[in-house]
Backbone:
């Protein structure tokens, strides 16, 4: 299992970026949960044809970075990129990037300013 986690971390470190995860709460100020490794990318034409909004993107967040958060990531959380762009989490999928019962990464559908 450690090998798989290491490969995910290497991939996200090489091809991704470090983002700040913020949680919107009922009574301000919003909570800054911490920094996490993420890979932000567009959806494929097939995924868009299957019903994903064309302006949305996919963010893959390393589960290991989210271990101390409960829940790890949820709808309406914000991802703040180094450029200052803010993306809003619209949906979270923790079942596609796992081995057995261990989640390696969370795949999130995000929306926000154009990159």
Residues:
């Amino acid at each position: 299992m450690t090998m798989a986690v290491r490969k995910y971390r290497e991939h996200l470190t090489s091809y991704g970026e470090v983002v700040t995860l913020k949680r919107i709460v009922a009574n301000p100020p919003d909570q800054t949960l911490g920094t996490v490794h993420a890979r932000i990318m567009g959806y494929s034409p097939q995924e868009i044809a299957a019903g994903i909004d064309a302006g949305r993107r996919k963010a893959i967040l390393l589960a290991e970075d989210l271990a101390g958060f409960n829940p790890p990531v949820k709808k309406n959380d914000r991802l703040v990129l180094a450029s200052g762009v803010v993306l809003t989490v619209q949906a979270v999928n923790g079942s596609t990037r796992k081995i057995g019962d261990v989640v390696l990464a969370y795949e999130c559908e995000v929306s926000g300013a154009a990159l």
Notes: The longest strand covers residues 31-42.
